Amino acid sequence: MTKINPLLLKNFRKSLGLSQKEIAKTIGINLRTYRSYENGSRGLSLEKFTSFKEALGFVRDAVKDLIKVHIDYLRMTFMSIR
């Protein structure tokens, strides 16, 4: 199971201009739970990340969405490699 790097999750949230409290409320989870994903004490799967994106208004289209999520994951991963 692919896990999202916590730093990349933080960068994703910041790119949306949201605080931890705002994103947790929007995606429907407890603030403490979101913080645990972002600080790395709890692993965030690619599938869970996809559900978070849906809650944030990103459109899901079965095959296309899976490809987009993988592309997002790769972009975030390679962006951090410098």
UniProtKB/TrEMBL annotation:
<feature type="domain" description="HTH cro/C1-type">
    <location>
        <begin position="9"/>
        <end position="66"/>
    </location>
</feature>
<dbReference type="InterPro" id="IPR001387">
    <property type="entry name" value="Cro/C1-type_HTH"/>
</dbReference>
<protein>
    <submittedName>
        <fullName>Helix-turn-helix transcriptional regulator</fullName>
    </submittedName>
</protein>
<dbReference type="Pfam" id="PF01381">
    <property type="entry name" value="HTH_3"/>
</dbReference>
<dbReference type="InterPro" id="IPR010982">
    <property type="entry name" value="Lambda_DNA-bd_dom_sf"/>
</dbReference>
<dbReference type="GO" id="GO:0003677">
    <property type="term" value="F:DNA binding"/>
</dbReference>
